[in-house]
């Protein structure tokens, strides 16, 4: 059975909260606009929120590892409320869009209430974060900016919701 029951009480009970935990603000207006479109659409299906951790101040005086370690401390503070945490990482598990929808279905069916997706900064994330997450996933073996990933991933979550709802968005 789909996670979206006909009964509104059942529908509310099955809803999972998704948090997009991200480092830094999006500086490109066209990326922000596209992300906002899909983020708004997601609210039709799920309770979704974003937590944006500001870029580290004086980062130009730090090397990549120092930046990742400082960001890791801030990420760990926010991750504490998650029941399941997924890191977007180029070396993570790859899913097709249908498989990703199935992952979300399975996670919701398992009773997960808070699902966090972490999108790291320009240098990725520290090993301390990689060791704390439940799963790492990759959107591609190609490298994208951490800002583009926000847009791409918001669209993929939206696509997954339309697949689960059997709505005409995903073509296969």
Helix proportion: 40-55%
Strand content: 15-25%
Query: Which whole number gives the mean pLDDT?
Result: 89
Distance between the termini: 21 Å
Count of structural domains: 1
Low-confidence blocks of residues: 3-13
Radius of gyration: 16 Å
General description of the model:
The protein is α/β, with parallel strands linked by helices. The chain has one domain: SPOUT methyltransferase, trefoil knot domain (Alpha/beta knot). The chain is 42% helix and 20% strand. The chain contains six helices and five strands; from the N terminus they run H-E-H-E-H-E-H-E-H-E-H. A five-stranded parallel β-sheet has the order 2-1-4-3-5, with helices on both faces. Strand 1 (17-23), helix 2 and strand 2 (47-53) form a beta-alpha-beta unit. Helix 2 packs parallel to helix 6 (146-164) and helix 4 crosses helix 6. It is globular and about 50 Å long. The protein starts with 7 loop residues before the first helix and ends in an 8-residue tail after the last helix. Residues 3-13 have low confidence and may be disordered.
Give the tags.
6 helices, five-stranded parallel sheet, 42% helix, single chain, Alpha/beta knot, 172 residues, disordered N terminus, alpha/beta, 20% strand
Summed up, what is this model?
By secondary structure, this protein is of the alpha/beta class. 42% of the residues lie in helices and 20% in strands.
């Amino acid at each position: 059975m789909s996670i979206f029951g006909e009964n509104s009480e059942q529908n509310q009970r099955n809803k999972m909260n998704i948090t997009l935990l991200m480092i830094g603000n999006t500086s490109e207006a066209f990326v922000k606009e596209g992300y906002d479109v899909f983020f708004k659409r997601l609210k039709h299906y799920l309770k979704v929120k974003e937590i944006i951790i500001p870029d580290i101040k004086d980062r130009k005086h730090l090397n990549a590892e120092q930046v990742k370690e400082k960001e890791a401390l801030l990420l760990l503070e926010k991750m504490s409320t998650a029941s399941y945490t997924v890191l977007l990482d180029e070396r993570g598990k790859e899913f097709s869009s249908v498989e990703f929808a199935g992952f979300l279905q399975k996670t919701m069916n398992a009773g997960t209430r808070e699902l966090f997706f972490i999108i790291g900064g320009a240098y990725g994330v520290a090993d301390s974060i990689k060791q704390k997450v439940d799963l790492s996933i990759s959107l591609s073996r190609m490298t994208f900016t951490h800002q583009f990933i926000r847009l791409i991933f918001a669209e993929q979550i939206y696509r997954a919701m339309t697949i689960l709802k059997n709505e005409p968005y995903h073509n296969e």
